Amino acid sequence: MQGAITRVCMVVVAAILNHPLLFPNENTTIHEQDEDLLARMKEHQEKLESEQERLEQEISQTETALIGDQDSYGWYFWSALCLVIFFTIEVCRQDMIPAEIPDPVEDEDGDSSARYLSAKSVALDKDVLNNFSKTRFHPFIHETGRVREFIEGFADDLLEALRSVCDREADLEVEDFVGIGSMFESWRVSKPPMCDLIVPFSPPQPFRFQFQLWCDPATEIPLDLQGCGRIKLIKPGWNGTECLCGSTSLGDDMLCLLHNRNECEKLEEHTLVELLCAKNTTYLSKDQIMRWFQISVTKAWGQISHKYDFELAFRNLDFPGALKIRFRSGKTVVLNVTPAVQFEETDAYLISHFPSDTSNSSDIHWQLSLTVYERNLLKYLAKRLPTNSCHIHCLQIVSFLHKKQTALTGRSAFCNYHIKTALLHLLLSKRLTMWQPQNLDHRLRDLLSFLQQSLEEKRLYHVIVGNPRIPIEILVPKIICSAEPINLFRPLVLQRHVYAKMEEHFQEMVINASVLVQEYTPHFSNGHMRHEFSSTDQA
């Protein structure tokens, strides 16, 4: 009897472990999986039926040999248990088939295959890419120099007027601007020209800023705010100990000559905190600073507008530094002026926002900008690259594809900063001799593949923070070098729909890459160059 029971248990275990739905074959296609599954199910069903008949015969023979009703009831129990187990397997089979074998979804062209293309297999012709780069981006070289010269002169004039409208004793002190972005890194790709400026400011004397970065062990900042920091407005002796009248027992006929002045200073301090800091804190508020900045820029432009023959307007009220210059000819220049706080005596800045990033909604957490170090790194590497290296063209082409794909399918969280970060990682990891101009097609595929892999792995690390490959000549602050690397995709991964749209945007861009390059490449006919532009070229 014990042997028969053991056999029944072994049959049940074997049926469960060998069930075709328990370990599906993940490497087969949907149709192959379907046919193989049905064949295996039919085979197992026949085996189970024959085994059940054999077991029933053994059970019937064993029952005749058993003595006592108690043993008979035990056999009935085991038979019922086997039926329940087989019935459960059958029910699970009905539930699992739709989940394991989904119906293929066809796209608009009737193709049931997923819209995925490996960046390594993108068809890119070397001659077409060279012709595309020369005709598409070279005309910007001279125009960029003129626009940059104009913007630098206008920004100096605007900031000087801004200083004149500010109260030097009770207002923020505005310092000289710092140019960043494609216009100042010589990889502009499209019209209208866009210039990004950082405008540092500092508190009036005797106040100063105290910084609390995310990488400081003594600072508690949420994980989704990596790369951010708080700015505390402090004043030496703010606790009132500078005057002895508050801690010394003076006679009734004694008068503190400083007391009245201290009361006035405390009132000014309270007013400054309300003007610059978040409510009930001494931490600098981004909203308060942006409001102050918008008012100050408006007043400054009112003082100098008569000197210029163009219009200046705010493009986005949510970002007061987003300006647009419109000339009488209809030409425009986009200007992003971002207020910032210089981190100690370094080229790092804590800024209110990145123009392409709206994920940080905290009012007191400022984002760390290391774009000056990135610009210096790009210059440092460019001096060591081969003559006429293809790295800038790689950056320009992918940025151009991103812009055109945005015009086709709409905006996403993917931005040019991600592209530049990926390029810098490749420049640091590959031999510099591999960036010869004749290798443009190979390096372009490498850049697209790096971005594609980063999106699949959901991580793209900041090129400066915690990167041991950064040359010491770049002079990155020690606290930034020793910090843990920052995943630029982390805040986006937490927003699933945002990240899914970004992945879809990039995949469509890869699929359309060769078509877009061909479409916007000049074609030669009868010795004359002509352009074939689509409506998206005007975007």
From TrEMBL:
Keywords: Cell membrane, Coiled coil, Glycoprotein, Membrane, Nucleus, Signal, Transmembrane, Transmembrane helix. The keyword Cell membrane applies. Pfam families: Mab-21_C. SMART domains: Mab-21 (SM01265). The keyword Signal applies. Residues 1-15 form the signal peptide. It is a single-pass type I membrane protein. It is found in: Cell membrane; Nucleus outer membrane. InterPro entries: ITPRIP-like, Mab-21_HhH/H2TH-like, MAB21L/cGLR. One of its GO terms (cellular component) is nuclear outer membrane. Residues 31-65 form a coiled coil. Residues 390-462 form the Mab-21-like HhH/H2TH-like domain. Belongs to the ITPRIP family. PANTHER family: CELL FATE DETERMINING PROTEIN MAB21-RELATED, INOSITOL 1,4,5-TRISPHOSPHATE RECEPTOR-INTERACTING PROTEIN. Enhances Ca(2+)-mediated inhibition of inositol 1,4,5-triphosphate receptor (ITPR) Ca(2+) release. This is Inositol 1,4,5-trisphosphate receptor-interacting protein.
